[in-house]
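Intended use. Records like the one below are meant for learning the mapping from a protein sequence to its folded structure. Do not use them to infer anything beyond what is encoded.
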Amino acid sequence: MNKELIKAIFILPGSALVFIPGAILWLAANFSNAILPAGPSEPRFYIGIFIGVSGLAMAVWTVRLFVTVGKGTPAPWAPPKKLVVRGPYRHTRNPMITAVIWMIGAEALLVGSWPLAAWMLVFYIVNAIYFWRVEEPGLERRFGEGYRRYKANVPRWGLRVRPWDGPLRLLLLAPLAFLLAAPGLHADVLRRGTNDELPTFDPQYIVGNSAGAIMYDLFEGLVSRSPDGTPVLGIAESWSVSEDGTVYTFRLKSNAKWSDGQAITAGDFVYSYKRMLDPQSGTRGASALFPVLNATSISLGDKPVDSLGVKAVDPLTLEITLEGPAPYFISLLASYSNAPVPSHVIEKYGRKWTQPGNMVTNGAYMVNEVVTNTYYRLVRNPHYHSADQVSIDEVIYYPVPSTTTSLKRYLAGELDVILNIPLNQYENLRKTRPEEFRITPGIGLGYLSINNTLPPFDDVRVRKALSLSIDREVIVEKLLKTGDEPAHSVVPTAIWGSSGELPAYSGQTQEQRLAQARSLLNEAGFNTNNPLKFTFLFSPLERDRRLAVAYRSMWQQAGVEAELETAGMRALMKKAAAREYQVMRLTYYAIFYDPVSFFALIKGDSFRNYSGYSNADINRRLAIADTIRSDDERTAYLREIEQRVMQDFPVIPSHFQSRAFLVNKRVKGWTNSTAPKMAKDLELDGGP
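Structure written out for the chain above:
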């Protein structure tokens, strides 16, 4: 056998034998259904295809090298020198190993395969040191001038072998070293996954569940929430309410300060509330202050901002006057959008006030570092009024849009808390991590909005038939399997605090409900020869697609033909607001913890009423409910209103959506309540 082939077999495995097990581990970690399957909707699926094809090409390259060297013929990329048959194995191992390392570096960066990256890193260090200290000097001694001529003639694209090649390749480890030394791998740091990159840190411009946890860590309003969800004092030291329930007077804490040490005053709240309602500001949380006197008119541009019913009586006393009684007003103030913003910083920096170095907050934490699309580092605010009660020093939020990637990073120990878990992993996590898998009762409603202004949906018989056709138990228990609750009304059980009276049809079998639905449709003029047809709109999310297919199948059993159509969320909401649709799937989460928040979906003058339903009697009853001071009496009265509303079937409630979290055992103080999980209420036990 050719001696050079033997040398290649023993020296070249640095390329072939590293890549082959590395590729196998990568494929197993990313494509095995037994671990975490990747889907075509995820970028790493295509990255995997690219790396797989590249791997095959590298394998072919390796085999070709063996054959070329074995035959004793020059490799096509090598110079025509006497040494050429003896040298190709050294020449090719360098670019191959470099390619493998960068492949694994990309994997570690995009997906977080730390064990695999660590394994490759150790091998690379050993290989680089071995070549630097052993192989290079050996080749110099053995081949002398011939080897030096070979090095001088290797093309640049082939990565020349130089005496300093070993140290240079060690520098290539910098990206991996950076990744392996990623922030947050310490005992006093809470590492949380969030769904998306935040467009801003301004609490008045941002909405959505992904922003909630971060905003509550950074900002605090007059009122906050305890871990069990009840309203508690925030910046306010106390409050009082006038006899008629329209004037609220708040006394601020004397030690309340911004994170730059400047005192928080009543004037800061006046400035913030006017800013939020000013139609020129373009803020997105204005509706949270609509109960305040003139707030709605100001937001529409009908009245000047200075007419808002807020007044700074003195630096520590704030007076708020409402349009009328609103028993839920205190709960409404607990929203992060009603927290103050620093006027002295905004006036100095304008829209750039939220940039690191400029930003000032008043919550338990403040922004320390932002790395776009990577992480946000929050550190404890030393000027927070209760800083001595905050246990966790740092909170780092990692934006991870892919639920599969988020789960993978959690299982690898990189994240302590994640929200939005792949639906196909719920059952597995319930069995394998019962103490870490947390389900929070839903304060969200998954529902179907029906355009009541268009025929035939202006006929209650048609709306009722569509509602009766849906088997909510199948949706929740067979399709979703996420801990959601069947919904027959608009207000979630978690908001009421207990289950209410179910409608009569809920006790019927599905066949009985379908028979009743067919009868109602027949009365409305629809039958086999003239079936009800309409277009059903929904977002392109996988969960929504599965639900849409299920709804269509259930309607078909009642003789209804629904054509499915998707629209991006922005386009979907635009159509909803303009009522340019027939039936669509929507989700609504309460902006404050009170039944009235959900009645916004059916109240005649509410901008959240996309169905166009309007009932003067219901609107009158809701106004009366606001004047009832007794909580028990008001709750009973609102339940009656809900039962009356659902007789008209203005919308089709499907299920009350729960929220699933994975919470590391080292995180203490986590509750399964509907309250926001603020870092100031948590503690960490032990290392990561």
